[in-house]
Design brief:
It is a single chain. By secondary structure, this protein is an all-alpha fold. The chain has a domain of 108 residues. The protein is built from two helices and no strands. The protein starts with a helix and ends with a helix. The model has no long low-confidence stretch (mean pLDDT 87).
């Protein structure tokens, strides 16, 4: 192979092209590639950070849900206890009221019994006086007294 001026000219042209490319073309390309690499790395880092934050948020959400369930359970238990307490109080009040009503009714019954006895005593006294008047008005005949006493017994 002969080295001639064309090869030397091509070599010089190639060297100038390489020098021009290294001086003016290659730096913006490498700079763009480096910036793109930094952006990709930053994007991946942001994605990892977002993933960790999402996991943390999920854990917090689960903790909040657990706490809310516990609070709901406590509220339900408190409401149940309160309702049982109210029922017991209502039963106690109803029992007390029932006893009071029974006592009032018994008092009323005893008053009515007393009134009925008094009325019976009054009627018995009236009948006895009436019977005595009839016996005195009639003769003192025992057979007549017997009929009169039977009549009074029937009235009583």
């Amino acid at each position: 192979m002969d080295i001639n001026a064309t090869i030397i000219g091509q070599f010089i042209t190639f060297a100038i092209l390489v020098w021009f490319t290294m001086k003016y073309v290659w730096p913006p390309i490498t700079k763009t590639l480096y910036e793109r690499e930094k952006k990709i790395a930053a994007g991946l880092e942001a994605a990892e950070r977002s993933k960790r934050e999402l996991e943390m948020a999920e854990h917090k959400a689960l903790a909040i849900i657990r706490e809310a369930k516990q609070q709901a359970t406590q509220i339900i238990e408190q409401a149940s206890l309160h309702s049982a307490q109210l029922v017991e109080e209502a039963k106690s009040q109803a029992k007390t009221e029932g006893q009071r009503i029974v006592e009032l009714a018994q008092g009323e019954i005893s008053r009515e019994i007393t009134q009925a006895r008094e009325a019976l005593k009054s009627q018995l006294a009236t009948l006895a006086i009436t019977g005595a008047e009839k016996i005195i008005q009639r003769n003192l005949d025992p057979s007549i007294h017997h009929d009169l006493l039977s009549e009074l017994a029937a009235e009583i």
